[in-house]
Write a structure and sequence with these properties.
Length: about 525
């Protein structure tokens, strides 16, 4: 009873605070003629060139916004204490006209999901106290590429603890270290996960650029619910080295930004071969187009594209307003030159969407134990060195981790697994068969450039086959809760998906800043 009263009081306080947020003064929003809030990477780079903005001013703006908004939204788990130093360094490089200092991500702050390792003063914990104070051997592969591009690591974003692979009863966006992330559009709505903090922070202008990770829906879902753009790349297009794993068969790292153009800039910076993830990145590097991904930001990107619609189960709506919006979007496709191939079906779709039936759960549990144990053993220092020790830590500090409330059922199911045996091989074979006879057959037989779905419900289709997908803001329901539209394709079709997503975005301009509705 006491716990319920405390939670109720906390909710009331949060509602009051969010109402006040709309009236409290923010950090300086402008430098000369530039409005930093809602600014794109292109806007920021232009301001750098015209001496209207410095990286230090930009970082200070974001730090002020984090201080103002994060106590309520909890999108950021930790700020880099060296952020201003790195900003000064970027400004000096720009002043010295160093190579590449006026392009791409140079001098742009980036927030990383807290399962992406950085060899600096930041922690990498997947939101768990079990990894607080652990020391990683080196930067993750994607962070190495960000630093090479001149980006500023601003901090770590909150997430669903252990990338939502700890317990099915834990709320989306919650972690022991970060608390409960809030949707900046509607407080009571889910921020989704597991990359919830990355999406919350970008949506609410605490940063312009973030990275998330996805195993099954963890970029697409929070992007949809927080009205931002998220790209789930083809498996291996971005390195998984140094990222706290779930399963290498499905794990991928991608950008979460406010616009398709920003996401394309970030994708250009983080893709490519990594010696520490050689097999996957070596194979997927063949998909990277000469000249990168920004060249596919075409306003007429919908023209000539064949877009597939699977109405059952991906076009079902709880509100007429949302249903009408998506019917209008289908017309937008047609009026902008796309061919809409409607009323298609994916074979065995109900099985694909049920992880216990498809084999996804069986395979992932064993793969998680193997890959997590390997990650933990490579740490320079760590309070825990195996999944078994993580489970023991959680039991010992149950009050600290709120284990009594949320449990660790998935951990307990994964620990008894013993490598990849007959059951796991059968599950993986079944996933491959479902993919071949389902999504791949649909795409090839109908000569589709993309499958179009609502929200995040198609994520298992893309997850089990390692396929790419992009979520773009599409509609707000009667309460103000956002829903995205998702474009998915075959491996390596990011160029087509970017053309389609950008064409849709430019034709509709749906996204609006968050409203902080209580």
């Amino acid at each position: 009873m006491l716990t319920m009263k405390i939670h109720s009081l906390s909710l009331i306080i949060s509602v009051i605070c969010l109402i006040l947020l709309q009236w409290l003064p923010s950090g300086t929003n402008t430098c000369h003629a530039l409005s930093i809030r809602e600014a794109t990477i292109w806007d920021l780079q232009t301001a750098f060139k015209q001496n209207q903005l410095t990286s230090r001013q930009l970082v200070q703006f974001y730090l002020n916004e984090i201080q103002r908004l994060n106590p309520i939204l909890k999108g950021v788990i930790e700020v880099n204490p060296d952020a201003l130093y790195l900003a000064n360094k970027a400004d000096l490089e720009r002043k010295a006209k160093a190579a590449g200092s006026y392009s791409g991500l140079h001098g742009i702050p980036v927030l990383l999901k807290d399962n992406i390792a950085t060899k600096d003063k930041l922690n990498t914990t997947a939101g768990s106290f079990a990894l607080l104070g652990s020391v990683v051997p080196q930067d993750s592969g994607v962070v190495m590429k960000l630093r090479k591009a001149g980006a500023i690591i601003l901090g770590k974003a909150s997430l669903s603890e252990w990338s939502a692979f700890r317990s099915p009863t834990a709320p989306a966006g919650w972690s022991a270290r970060g608390g409960q992330g809030k949707n900046p559009y509607v407080l009571s709505a889910t921020p989704c996960g597991s990359s919830g903090g990355s999406a919350i922070s970008v949506a609410s202008n605490m940063v312009a650029v973030s990275l998330g990770t996805e195993t099954d829906g963890s970029i697409i879902c929070p992007s949809s619910f927080n009205s931002v753009v998220g790209i789930k790349p083809t498996i291996g297009l971005t390195s998984r080295a140094g990222v706290i794993p779930i399963t290498p068969r499905q794990d991928t790292i991608g950008p979460i930004c406010r616009t398709v153009s920003d996401a394309a800039y970030v994708l250009d910076a983080i893709v490519g071969f990594d010696y520490n993830d050689a097999e996957a990145t070596g194979k997927a590097s063949n998909y990277i187009p000469s000249g990168g991904y920004v060249q596919f930001l075409k306003a007429d990107g919908l023209k000539g594209k064949r877009l597939g619609i699977v109405r059952d189960p991906f076009f079902k709506f709880s509100e007429k307003l949302v249903a009408q919006a998506f019917q209008n979007h289908l017309q937008t496709f047609r009026s902008n030159g796309a061919v809409v191939v409607d009323y298609l079906e994916i074979a065995n779709i109900s099985t694909i969407l049920t992880s216990t039936l498809s084999g996804e759960t069986t395979a992932a549990l064993a793969e998680f134990r193997i890959s997590l144990n390997a990650y933990l053993k490579e740490l320079v220092a760590s309070p825990v060195r195996s999944l078994a020790e993580v489970i023991a830590f959680n039991k010992k500090f149950s009050d600290l981790e709120m284990i009594k409330e949320f449990g660790q059922d998935i951990f307990l199911a994964a620990e008894p697994t013993n490598g990849i045996g007959d059951a796991e091989n059968k599950a993986i074979w079944n996933l491959e068969e479902l993919t071949r006879n389902g999504f791949e057959k649909l795409m090839v037989q109908n000569k589709l450039d993309a499958l179009v779905t609502v929200g995040f419900n198609a994520s298992p289709v893309y997850a089990i086959g390692g396929f790419p997908a992009i979520s773009v803001p599409a509609v707000y329901d009667s309460k103000g809760v956002p829903t995205g539209i998702c474009f998915g394709g075959l491996k390596g079709t990011e160029p087509k998906l970017i053309e389609i997503a950008y064409g849709f975005e430019q034709a509709t301009k749906i996204r609006k800043p968050p409203t902080f509705i209580p």
